[in-house]
Amino acid sequence: MQFMLLFSRQGKLRLQKWYVPLSDKERKKISRDLVQTILARKPKMCSFLEWRDLKIVYKRYASLYFCCAVEDQDNELITLEIIHRYVELLDKYFGSVCELDIIFNFEKAYFILDEFLLGGEAQETSKKNVLKAIEQADLLQEVCGLCPR
Amino acid sequence: MPAPIRLRELIRTIRTARTQAEEREMIQKECAAIRSSFREEDNTYRCRNVAKLLYMHMLGYPAHFGQLECLKLIASQKFTDKRIGYLGAMLLLDERQDVHLLMTNCIKNDLNHSTQYVQGLALCTLGCMGSSEMCRDLAGEVEKLLKTSNSYLRKKAALCAVHVIRKVPELMEMFLPATKNLLSEKNHGVLHTSVVLLTEMCERSPDMLLHFRKLVPQLVRILKNLIMSGYSPEHDVSGISDPFLQVRILRLLRILGRSDDDSSEAMNDILAQVATNTETSKNVGNAILYETVLTIMDIKSESGLRVLAINILGRFLLNNDKNIRYVALTSLLKTVQTDHNAVQRHRSTIVDCLKDLDVSIKRRAMELSFALVNGNNIRGMMKELLYFLDSCDPEFKADCASGVFLAAEKYAPSKRWHIDTIMRVLTTAGSYVRDDSVPNLIQLITNSVEMHAYTVQRLYKALLDDISQQPLVQVSSWCIGEYGDLLVSGQCEEEEPIQVTEDEVLDVLEGLLVSNLSTPVTRGYSLTAIMKLSTRFSSVNRIKKVVSIYGSSIDVELQQRAVEYNALFKKYDHMRPALLERMPIMEKTASNGPTEIMQTNGETEPSVPDTKHLPLVTQPANQANDLLDLLGGNDVMPVIQTTLPTKPASAGGELLDLLGDLSLTGGPTVVPAPAPSVPVSQPPFLLDGLSSQPLFNDTSAAIPPMTAYSKNGLKIEFTFERANPNPNIAVITIHATNTTEADMTEFVFQAAVPKTFQLQLLSPSSNIVPALNQGSVTQVIRVLNPQKQQLRMRVKLTYTHKGSPVQDLAEVNNFPPQSWQ
């Protein structure tokens, strides 16, 4: 996977994870263009598209679009499953997750993603194990005192 | 100084902003507060401030002043700090900035931390954004962690190693020992990431591939266990056990089994098992089937398995889920070359997909449809494709039109059908047709001798209806110019002949000249057509008048033509009939099909003598030794013009130029020829994705291709054909490709041969050799070798690369004996 973007129906970015080296300017441009392209698609259209020289896989969950750019050899259908697995993890963690949870707890969303994917590939295929790791890490955070919020 | 506001509060506050300006104000205020807090080196709240900064960064505001703070957080002992610090590093830093190198030491320490979650953070960051320098420094630590028994760390280390290998491929060797017993792990996370690591290594190094091939039985076993084992709640997805791992294993098997019979055989059974037993009601099952199909098609599987795979794809095509249909079409596109017959069985479903609402599916269905067209189904398929052409989005029309032309050319059941099909395309999608189609069509029409009357009549009628579509207008005016006499004669066998007078025809052509819809090129066509009619019509005076009017046209091209035509009337009237006589049948060069166009139609054709094209103008040699040294001078020796009337053209090189305005075979005696409009010498990009070489290569199969030149990234390959019917002529097609990162423009290929040979160089396909092998320039050379001597050639290449001109001379001596014997 080259990158993953989460954005709202109004085009506001809620999460951006980049697995390829790009400057801030380039990232902004890509995000802007891609978000526009996807928002322009009709609901009945297929979840895959070719964009520039990338394969894009996206799916909408309620008010959020989850969008991944994968390489040529990657299996698009399993990428849909990866997206779905991430949503399930968020759901389990936050308890019926909604967009607001991700807005107010964006750093947690990143932490969860980083326990699930690493370098663009899945590092753990068991839901239970991912959530367990997050739980332990959260505990560690509590224990050591000061929290950011 | 009061404590900085909490993250959540900031988020809440910013969200209350009603305008962009209000939001900007709040952000600026907070940024100022954060900046002063950073200046005070406040350790307590640094974490909070950076978190807020990251939020603002996500909204699109600049946050670079937080970069160093992230580094400080990473260096802190508190886990909370490290968590936010590493997150900040991944979001704000990138490897282009030197700042990121400061992380290296921290990461190194954290990789050896006592708490696995800290180690995890370090591995994650390194694996996501580690630059080559960092990877080089830290590869050893990663390798150590790859051998640990802690599965939490081991899986992360594996993916981190993948990243290191991608950044610094030379380091791949050092991870080899650690991979020894990766697959004996029970932990799925480690298994999955190990398979990813092994895949990466095998893809990058053929040696590694050979080394890891012995793992095939183990992989097959693991896959089998996954399928056969009962319900495992931890890894279950809709009744399937760990689909992620299954897909990854299938992909690795694909790489290991490719071009290896033994491995392929070892996996046959499991592939068949997966293909037949996987539940297909949900996406996850189909994802596994998809990967299985890709693997079956890529390895050396037995035919039964391949048919099974194609049938799975056929079933996918009927699936309600459009994603599945899309994936099926993509895969079928990849396999249509190798398993053509099997894919043909699903042709009707594929054609139905042309009517799908989704753009991506339509495009794939179109490409696949063109790939499936053959002599048997041409009529039916063309009906569907023309219907598609009518109704599709503009973005498809150009490709579809090109595809229709190509298919019609190859498989047209009759001349009339062919012409009708072309007419249909020109009238419905005329403005989207590619520019190079015009000369191709003209050549086609010229060669369909008995259809001239019918063709010109239909084109004339089409012109009366609509003069806005330039390709149609250009072809029509050319034909009227050529066959205007047939048009007014009122004879037509194929359909009811129309009655039209010379004046009416001239009205139409003059109308094109003055119309605002006509482009300059079209006007050129019309003027020339009018001129040609001077030998076919009797109203010469009218034509003379028109021609003289345009002698003062503002358009330089038109003016030049008109002036020259005028000259033709005044001073060279005796030459006019000869110069303007009917075009001879044009030889088709390097066509896609194995046979000349005449033979693909179901009717007999007078065969075209092609020897007449060769011995035209030859300039005397003036060197003592065999190989002519003229490349050192200006022009290349016998580079000859073809398809022009054989009357001496010495009266005006510019006149030759005029009649060569079709640029079918390039300019007069000088190479390089200008416009690259040789009739289809390479497949349009539409079908490029399917095969890297022309579909039918039988004619050159007898003579192996050779690399004639390879230097500085420019590679020139020669492929050979015997020109029928003259066995003394070798037809060589050069393919120039460019592996450098910049295009080579103004590319010119020149060649010279020994005295006993004659050389003819046709137009190149273009004069830009695109970078990174994205395309090639092709050009056809015909060599006449009546004395059957060993072929030698000296080539001169000139091009502009990265702004500077490059020139090189080379000798080509390694021609295979079959090319000149």
From TrEMBL, chain A:
Pfam families: Clat_adaptor_s
Any GO MF annotation of the entry: clathrin adaptor activity
Xref: Gene3D superfamilies: 3.30.450.60
All copies of domain AP complex mu/sigma subunit, residue ranges: 1-140
The keyword Cell cycle is annotated on this UniProt entry: no
Compartments where found: Cytoplasmic vesicle membrane; Golgi apparatus; Membrane, Clathrin-coated pit
Domain of life: Eukaryota
GO BP annotation list: intracellular protein transport
UniProt entry keywords in alphabetical sequence: Coated pit, Cytoplasmic vesicle, Golgi apparatus, Membrane, Protein transport, Transport
Keyword Signal annotated: no
Topological type in the membrane: Peripheral membrane protein
Record function comment: Subunit of clathrin-associated adaptor protein complex 1 that plays a role in protein sorting in the late-Golgi/trans-Golgi network (TGN) and/or endosomes. The AP complexes mediate both the recruitment of clathrin to membranes and the recognition of sorting signals within the cytosolic tails of transmembrane cargo molecules.
Description of how the protein assembles with itself and partners: Adaptor protein complex 1 (AP-1) is a heterotetramer composed of two large adaptins (gamma-type subunit AP1G1 and beta-type subunit AP1B1), a medium adaptin (mu-type subunit AP1M1 or AP1M2) and a small adaptin (sigma-type subunit AP1S1 or AP1S2 or AP1S3). Binds to MUC1.
Family: Belongs to the adaptor complexes small subunit family.
Protein known as: AP complex subunit sigma
TrEMBL record, chain B:
Top-level division of the source organism's lineage: Eukaryota
Biological processes, Gene Ontology terms: intracellular protein transport; vesicle-mediated transport
Primary location class: membrane
SMART domains from the UniProt entry: Alpha_adaptinC2
Membrane topology: Peripheral membrane protein
Location of the GAE domain: 701-816
Coiled-coil ranges per UniProt: none
Entry's localization field: Cytoplasmic vesicle membrane; Endomembrane system; Golgi apparatus
Keywords: Cytoplasmic vesicle, Golgi apparatus, Membrane, Protein transport, Transport
A cellular component annotation (GO) from this entry: AP-1 adaptor complex
Keyword Repressor appears in the UniProt entry: no
InterPro entries to which the protein is assigned, alphabetical: Adaptor_Complx_Large_Subunit, AP1_complex_gsu, ARM-like, ARM-type_fold, Clathrin/coatomer_adapt-like_N, Clathrin_a/b/g-adaptin_app_Ig, Clathrin_app_Ig-like_sf, GAE_dom
Family recorded in the similarity comment: Belongs to the adaptor complexes large subunit family.
PANTHER family membership: ADAPTIN, ALPHA/GAMMA/EPSILON (PTHR22780)
Name used for this protein in its record: AP-1 complex subunit gamma
Native organism: Oncorhynchus mykiss
